[in-house]
């Protein structure tokens, strides 16, 4: 299979056999200015694949890397693999930093109804207790009250991206609120507050 392509920004132009073509002209389905792909990065043309910012997946570098690896495993190593796009951590690189993973409270209520429970805390990290000005941290866990599964974690404050990224593995693996409650954290740290949240 010979396939050549050139991608510029988030709008990609493809080159097949040295002829410039728009995806639509090659019979590739386009949705909202992005190439539509299935879970294996296959386009509407079964012999044409796409990964990265040209697709209808989230346009984030880690998603593109994971999609590329999954594509390579599937096509070249004969080890079919997909990318789970349900629980991707997001961060806002700002002061204060903000990060989130999983469902928001509103999304959880839409999906799970009134059984959703939220656990919140606002605090000043112990390391900053003598510093001025005060630097508050806000954290929140979204939990399904029926199954006790943690559905989302959200944080505003220093190290939010690193902390939420690590919590993502626990959430993807089905961690419960009880798992969080019985975990021993590092003291003093901002992350340990996720393990001490009470109603």
What does this entry look like structurally?
By secondary structure, this protein is an alpha+beta fold. 21% of the residues lie in helices and 25% in strands. The chain is built from 4 helices and 10 strands. The chain has a 5-stranded antiparallel beta sheet. It has a 3-stranded antiparallel beta sheet with strand order 1-2-3, with no helix packed on it. Strands 4-5 form a two-stranded antiparallel ribbon. Strand 6 and strand 7 form a beta hairpin. The chain is elongated, with a radius of gyration of 21 Å. Residues 1-20 have low confidence and may be disordered.
Could you state the order of secondary-structure elements as H and E? EEEEEHEEHEEEHH
Which structural class is indicated by helix and strand composition? alpha+beta
Topology, number of strands: 10
What fraction strand? 15-25%
Cα separation of the termini: 58 Å
Q: What would you call the quaternary organization?
A: single chain
Strand line-up of the largest beta sheet: 6-7-10-9-8
How big is the Rg? Answer: 21 Å
Fold topology:
Layout: E1 4-8, E2 11-16, E3 19-21, E4 30-31, E5 34-35, H1 61-75, E6 90-92, E7 98-102, H2 105-112, E8 116-123, E9 137-144, E10 150-156, H3 160-172, H4 177-181
Antiparallel strand pairs: 1-2, 2-3, 4-5, 6-7, 7-10, 8-9, 9-10
């Amino acid at each position: 299979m010979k396939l050549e392509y050139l991608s510029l920004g988030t709008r990609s132009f493809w080159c097949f056999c040295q002829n410039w073509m728009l995806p639509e002209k090659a019979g590739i389905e386009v949705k909202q200015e992005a190439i539509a792909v299935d879970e294996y990065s296959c386009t509407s043309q079964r012999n044409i694949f796409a990964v990265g910012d040209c697709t209808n997946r989230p346009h984030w570098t880690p998603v593109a890397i994971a999609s590329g690896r999954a594509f390579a495993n599937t096509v070249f190593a004969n080890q079919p693999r997909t990318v789970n796009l349900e629980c991707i951590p997001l961060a806002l690189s700002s002061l204060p930093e903000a990060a989130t993973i999983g469902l928001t409270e509103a999304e959880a209520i839409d999906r799970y109804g009134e059984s959703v429970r939220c656990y919140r805390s606002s605090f000043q990290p112990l390391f900053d207790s003598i510093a001025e000005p005060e630097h508050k941290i806000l954290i929140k866990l979204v939990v399904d009250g029926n199954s006790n599964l943690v559905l989302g974690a959200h944080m505003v404050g220093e190290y939010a991206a690193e902390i939420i990224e690590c919590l993502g593995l626990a959430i993807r693996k089905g961690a419960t609120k009880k798992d969080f409650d019985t975990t021993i954290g590092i003291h003093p740290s901002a992350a340990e507050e996720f393990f001490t949240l009470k109603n």
